[in-house]
Design goal:
CATH architecture of the largest domain: 3-Layer(bba) Sandwich
Strand content: 25-35%
Shape: globular
CATH topology of the largest domain: FAD/NAD(P)-binding domain
Strand order of the largest sheet: 3-2-1-7-18
Number of domains: 3
Number of helices: 12
Distance between the termini: 59 Å
CATH class of the largest domain: Alpha Beta
Structural class: alpha/beta
Length: 440
């Protein structure tokens, strides 16, 4: 069997590994427009911070070579000829039995008047972008980052770590990390960032950006910002131009339309990663989900289905994420209160700040917010902020949402306790939600 994979990011890499696991003899060709692959795409910001080297973020060993996967670097696939089941890449023809599309996403440039490309930078999963920024960042000491999502925050933290004395972080939304946090929770982290020298300009009305005397001048209604460089971290859009050209259907969110097996309208073509149109597990509403964790999962699912004949359905995303900001771990899963209300859901919420241990043993505070569907009595969202590791808590809450476990069961589940280790403060949130549910 001949398998062609377009795109060698997390989705393509995971798919190729899983396909090789299922078929030791299949010919697997993977195509990338980049000149090097095999790195962890979330980690370039940590190199930019100066706490890792480029060689540290590459996967160990000769990943593709060890698995007998044919890698085509600096190779652009220009055509998919579906009737003949072949692709054209760098003027060469490659036949396929099954084709997997995972070309990723392209950074979105906001429609700000005056952008001219001078000292304006974006960040993508292409390690070449990270290497270029690594050479550029030491030349300056002032910057504005437009877009306060995870990537924008990581870039901002990198600039502070590299000694920048003036950094502005702007966003048109009312708080940082708007996809995962509500304003009441985000404000707890925003104060920490400001205390560290980052000026946050939220609900920003950016009128324009000009280049004057070698400086970037950002026009706001009541002030002008002057910095040396600007980072545009305002999200990304699915890379679907090639799919469109081949007649592959595109969904309402702009991603490649797939069924529950990640199969496109062509039965021999699948899609995975940032390029596809995703859906949430809570309401099955269509959404975009441009995260490496989602790309890895969809790559594995698509790889299995194209080899085994649609045996494993993809259930959708729970929008989970985690990030660390100046020693604070921030995590979220499911809907924010704001998004749930926008979807017209009848919800109840609980917001608490509780010590995780007894005061004389450290008193580390964990802030959490839980969002539940009043009609079904189930959890639909959670947000956590703590100085402790919270990934395990986020995973537990994700399972509770995915399995639609009733709040009355969550409130009564027994959890361990030790004075030295601490207690489970999330249980208090479940019990508070139950009280609201019973009195409503």
């Amino acid at each position: 069997m001949n398998i062609c994979i377009i795109g060698a990011g997390a989705a393509g890499r995971n798919a190729s590994e899983y396909i090789r696991h299922l078929d030791k003899k299949a010919r697997i060709d993977i195509f990338s427009t980049q000149d090097e692959i095999g790195y962890a795409p979330c980690e370039p910001p940590f190199v930019l911070k100066g706490i890792a080297q480029w060689q540290d973020i590459f996967y160990p060993g000769k990943f593709f070579e060890d698995r007998g996967i044919n890698v085509h670097l600096n190779t652009k696939v220009t055509d998919v000829i579906r009737k003949e089941k072949r692709i054209i890449a760098n003027d060469q023809s490659y036949s396929y039995d099954k084709l997997l599309l995972c070309p990723g996403a392209i950074p979105s440039i906001p429609p700000i008047p005056g952008l001219d490309g001078q000292n304006e930078f974006t960040m993508s999963t292409n390690i070449a972008d990270g290497r270029a920024l690594d050479k550029i960042i030491p030349k300056y000491s002032t910057a504005a980052v437009i877009g306060a999502g995870a990537i924008g925050i990581e870039i901002t933290l990198a600039l502070i770590a590299r000694g920048y004395h003036e950094v502005y972080l702007l966003d048109i939304q009312e708080n940082i990390l708007p996809a995962g946090l509500d304003k009441d929770m985000a404000s707890k982290v925003e104060q920490v960032m400001q205390d560290k020298g980052i000026e946050l300009i939220l609900s920003a009305d950016i009128r324009g950006i000009e280049t004057k005397s070698g400086m970037k001048q950002i026009s706001l209604p009541n002030r002008e910002l002057k910095v040396e460089i600007v980072f545009l971290t305002t999200g990304a859009r699915p890379n679907v131009e090639m799919a469109k050209k081949a007649g592959i259907k595109i969904g309402e969110t702009g991603g490649i339309l797939v069924n529950e097996y990640l199969q496109t309208n062509d039965p021999d073509i699948y899609a995975a990663g940032d390029c596809l149109e995703n859906w949430d597990m809570i309401t099955r509403s269509k959404t975009r989900r441009l995260m490496v964790t989602t790309a890895s999962r969809t790559g594995m699912v698509a790889g299995e289905n194209l080899m085994k004949g649609n045996s494993t359905p993809y259930e959708g995303t729970l929008m989970s994420f985690v990030i660390e900001i100046f020693g604070n771990q921030i995590g979220a899963v499911g809907f924010t209160e704001k998004l749930a209300r926008e979807k017209g859901m009848d919800i109840i919420t609980s917001t608490l700040s509780s010590p995780t241990t007894r005061p004389h043993l450290g008193k580390n505070i964990l802030h959490h917010k839980l969002i539940a569907n009043r009609l079904t009595g189930t959890l639909i969202g959670a947000q956590i902020i703590s100085g402790e590791i919270i990934r395990g808590i986020i995973n537990e809450l994700a399972l509770a949402i995915a399995e639609k476990i009733p709040l009355n069961r969550l409130a009564l589940i027994e959890s361990p306790y030790s004075p030295a280790v601490g207690r489970d403060p999330i249980g208090d949130g479940f019990r508070k939600l139950m009280q609201k549910l019973k009195t409503s």
